Amino acid sequence: MKTLIGWFLIILLLFGFSFLFMEAAAEIKDIQTLSEVFEEHVAIDTIELSSNSYMYDKEGQVISEIYNEGNREYIEYQDIPKKVIDAFIQTEDRRFFDHKGYDGTAIIRALVINAKSSSIEEGASTMTQQLARNVFLSHEQSYNRKLSELLYAHEIEKQYSKEEIIELYLNTIYFQNGVYGFEAASQFYFGRTSSELTLAEVAFLSAVPNNPTHYDPIKNSQNTNLRKDWIIEKMREAEVITIEEADQAKKQQITVTPKKRIDLFPDYVTYIHYELKELIAEEDGFNRRLSSAESPRQIEAIERELNQKVEKVLQSGVHIETALDPAMQKRANDVIANTLPQTDIQSTAVMIDHLRNELVGITAGKAYQKFDFHRGYQMYRQPGSAIKPILVYAPYMEESAVPLQSSINANNFCSNGYCPKNYGGGQYGNVSLMTAFIHSYNTPAVRILDRVGIETAFTYLDTFGFKEVTKEDHFLPAALGGFTYGMSPLELTRSYTPFGRNGQYAPAYGIRSVKTDEGDILYSWEAVDEELWSPETNDKMRTLLREVVRSGTGRRASISSNYVGGKTGTTNDYHDMWFIGLNDQYTTGIWIGKDRRESLSAIYGSSPHLTIWREIMK
């Protein structure tokens, strides 16, 4: 019996051991190496650093430096001066090229020192550990963080070469005053690239990351200079510089001239930020996705993704080349400020070079601050009679090929209860199309729209893509600018460009191209011209627009030029005053009004919209 029980227990133990062995083997298969854990949870192989982006005017001059997280100018290893690398290796990590991410000797020394002081006084961090801290970890003073540094540093050394680590390190370290990376520090504190710095200046800047507040080059330059001399001495001891070079560097007086962030022409720059989003949305398919979205939640998600994409592009260090003409932009702002000193009256100007079909200037309102509400493209107002050329007269000529001397009734008009009158209530009988146009009579315009057909006329207007024009606007009052919301100054000015482009239309943009730091084009508008007006219609319209300035409502806009033409527009109760005009090269639109719609009758008689246009264009 005992024998049977013994064999039973042995069999039971063997069965249990076999079961445990199989379970343990299965668990062993699931055990991951440290490297496998890092690869699964930490993207060590894809370190991405933000870099400054730049916006340029038409001549290639920087008008805006763009950065949010910090001022960083990324520099590649082959462009880093040798003396910069030597300065950091000799003072931060002498065994950099020998260790595998951490320095065991330095760690033991630090542990002994910290144990004696019962605090963390010695760090012993290698440059690789500092890189890990700057990119993946915090700057918390604790042993847990130090242990994490070691683990990250070990993996970084497996993924990157020593040269790549130096490159990343010198682009991530902090130099105080919002500056990250040695190249940005060189340009910010000295106004020169790192390759142009002296040995003393290199040592001076190399002092800062050790304790950015204590060695702040602006506030604590005495401290920075003391550490500068210490760094120079360490470099001399390592024989990477000579005694003569060290002595000369110690004697050099360091002068810091902090560079102000370039941020000019807030009106134009703010608009270009908006246009960049529009460009990315079009080129990367966001517009197509938005048009097919089936719910507000989907639209919101796509918009959020689009905003993230724009931010990612700007953080990648792109170069945005624009068509800005700084002289015209400045002149427009100055003329508006001088012509309209009243604090409650605003004005915008939109200037398009229609020969190149580029937006060369756009103002947003007096005393404009960057990223505030932009009246040039965000404000929608009724256009008044400025709509007549593109909704009434040009479609009429395109559809009927009528001569300019053909007659139209300028007496009162009524249709289905809509009974508009001419300004001042005058009735003029039958007049020529030219007379009706240059004096901006109302009833002829409504008759013409009725004759062309509302839907037919609006098919021409649809070409311009007015964002706030809806089906509810397809009625006769539109002939006189009666729209629910209206148009932005940018939209309305764009719509006149075909008159300067032989009837061809494509939206005029400010962005010429968005390029990488290497010069590769990431984004650019692919505008395709569309023939909107036939040559015959376009010639007739240019004649009408010219006569408005010669002898009609736009006489005060006259300037010396081979060709000048345009159209005025005034809304009910003088809430808005418009003039959209062109010469041989430019199409420029002017709007005047108050943010809270009120009458401008007190200034209407002096025609400030025509004065502003004339002073800008002459």
Quick structural gist:
With about 625 residues, the chain is an alpha+beta fold. About 45% of the residues lie in helices and about 10% in strands. Among the domains are: about 30 residues; about 180 residues, Biosynthetic peptidoglycan transglycosylase-like (Penicillin binding protein transpeptidase fold, Orthogonal Bundle).
Describe the model.
Helix 10 packs antiparallel against helix 11, helix 15 packs antiparallel against helix 23 and helix 16 packs across helix 19. Strands 2-1-5-11-12 form a five-stranded mixed sheet, covered by helices on one side. It has 618 residues and is of the alpha+beta class. Strand 15 and strand 16 form a beta hairpin.
Order of neighbouring strands in the sheet with most strands: 2-1-5-11-12
CATH superfamily grouping of one domain: Biosynthetic peptidoglycan transglycosylase-like
CATH topology of one domain: Penicillin binding protein transpeptidase fold
What's the number of helices? Answer: 23
- Termini Cα gap: 121 Å
CATH architecture of one domain: Orthogonal Bundle
Oligomer: single chain
Radius of gyration: 35 Å
User: Count of DSSP E strands?
Assistant: 16
Major sheet: 5 strands, mixed
CATH first level of one domain: Mainly Alpha
Shape: elongated
Organism: Alkalihalophilus pseudofirmus (strain ATCC BAA-2126 / JCM 17055 / OF4) (Bacillus pseudofirmus)
Keywords: Carboxypeptidase, Cell membrane, Cell shape, Cell wall biogenesis/degradation, Glycosyltransferase, Hydrolase, Membrane, Multifunctional enzyme, Peptidoglycan synthesis, Protease, Transferase, Transmembrane, Transmembrane helix
GO biological process, one term: proteolysis
Protein name: Penicillin-binding protein 4
